[in-house]
Design goal:
- This protein is an all-alpha fold.
- The protein is built from three helices and no strands.
- The protein starts with a helix and ends in a 7-residue tail after the last helix.
Length: about 70
């Protein structure tokens, strides 16, 4: 029993000799995409949404009489 353990300890294991898988990094086009859009496209959508909310909010304040034009 101890002889078997010594033999297995002295032999190189199969895992050590196995080829290591290559670390494949995603390309910039394959990177993080949300709804199929790139970072620039998401920024433009967020900016347009911000502007439209500001305009609609200002119009609501004028309509409800909270803000008056001079």
């Amino acid at each position: 029993m101890l002889d078997d353990m010594r033999r297995t300890a002295s032999e190189p294991s199969k895992q050590e000799n196995a080829p290591q898988p290559e670390n494949k990094r995603p390309q910039p086009e394959e990177g993080k995409k949300f709804l199929g859009m790139t970072a620039k496209q998401r920024f433009i959508i967020a900016l347009l949404l911000l502007v439209s909310i500001c305009v609609l909010g200002s119009l609501c304040l004028v309509v409800f009489g909270k803000v008056y034009f001079p």
